[in-house]
Amino acid sequence: MKQDNREYTDKKLSYHLNDLNLISPLDSEIPLFEPKIKLGILASGNGSNFEYIIKSIQNKQLNAEISILIVNNPNCLAIKKAIKYKIPYVIINHRDCDSRVEHDMLVMKKLEELSVELVVMAGWMRIVGKEIINMYKNRLINIHPSILPSFKGIDAIQQAIDHRVTITGCTVHYVQKEVDSGSIIIQAAVPIKKQDTKDSLKKRIQKMEHIILPLAIATVAKDIRTNFKDKK
Ligand code: GAR
Fold this sequence. Notes:
About 30% of the residues lie in helices and about 20% in strands. By secondary structure, it is of the alpha/beta class. The strands form two sheets. An eight-stranded mixed sheet has the order 3-10-9-8-7-4-5-6. Strands 1-2 form a two-stranded antiparallel sheet. Helix 1 (about 50-60) links the parallel strand 4 and strand 5.
């Protein structure tokens, strides 16, 4: 019998281990809201999360449009995805700026120019300053590859391996001044297998990221459209 598919049955319950909830909170449906929300996506890397946001919009799970992809790294693969899906993008290279504040200001100017309503840090490998955080209070979210508050900061997947935890995962949270510390919106758990390498674990974490990020965007967008609560 394959362990992962072991079946548990009693009078009320009948489920497979694979069906156990690994995402929380998980509503049975993706939150719905009107009208369409304008997203600004910030990315520095491969852009796989960016691509899954696009797919969620295409398959009508997410009532959104991506006003702009902003990248800080001119060589990042997210750009190729923007071209493939015909999403407007701009490179704002931090190396061309004299300070972090100057870079933040350019990013913020672009977001404001396009009346972006919700900003998603989808693999954005830069700390954002208080100017952006204040401007987009409750409207700026980040995805991080660990179950926060464990393993904040860089190389979260390696941190989990080094600590020999047996479950890690990913978190979408609001952004506040302290890195990886804002209120949690949604998390997913990913078991670590004995034979895992950093790459194999990263692949499984990212699979969950691709599910929870569109869910988190819909959750926050619904919040923006209904009751704009004060969250840290
Ligand atoms: C994602 O795994 C995300 O969690 C991580 O970068 C990756 C980007 O992948 N973000 C951080 O580590 C932020 N601290 P992608 O470019 O393929 O979406």
